[in-house]
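Appendix B. Raw example, untouched.
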Amino acid sequence: MTDRFVTATDGTRVHVVVHGEGTRDVLLLGGLAEHAARYAHVAPVWAALGAQVHVMELRGHGSSGGRRSHVLDWAEYRDDVRAVAATLRPGWVFFAHSMGGLVALDAVRDGLRPARLLLSNPLCGVKLKVPGWKTGLGRALSRVWPTLALTNEVDPGALSRDAAVGAAYARDPEVYHKVTARWFTEMTAAQARVAAIPTFPVPLRFDLSETDPITDAAASRALAQRVGAEVVEHPGMLHELVNEIGKDELIADLGRWLLA
């Protein structure tokens, strides 16, 4: 395992953790407020299948530069992904979870071309209940106070049926539990762009759980149906599929699809 930094077009340093020495590059992108160490049990499995796995941290996440969980423009996230992807070998494949899935879809819409894209409960829609006053406040202050940070409403108990996962998340000092007003309005704009994608240029698979209390599986399913993507359902599982009970078999299956 090695650490490296890639510089985005605006000079932001993007942290990447590399696992394995395989002949096929896998780019792995986690969700909101996550960091690379949360995938330390996933990357070695895929490396054993012949991959070199590059776990990236978007700006404002982990050891990357930037304000925590904040962007002025969603294009900043797309630029982070493009900067890392530019360092990978041709034929690289992409796995993205939750908010990372929304970033990945928007990046492909904007011209990024992985050989394959696999999404785990992507943030195509929000299922968790956000108070109306907070939604209104975020929209109103996005322009005048874009860096105002508000609690993101994510319940650690919603991540997995394995209670140890939520407990570790709650005490993890690298996990940030707020988002900014501008992040919120940029996120909703990205969702609207992705929802309007008419066709998809690369092989695409959605791994979804209807019982995920954070993201809206129905929004992802509607997009998958329109663009002809594969959908794999995981009944009873919560948000973080790779941290769920029975995760070992699922992680291996995800790796085999990516590297097929």
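End of appendix B.
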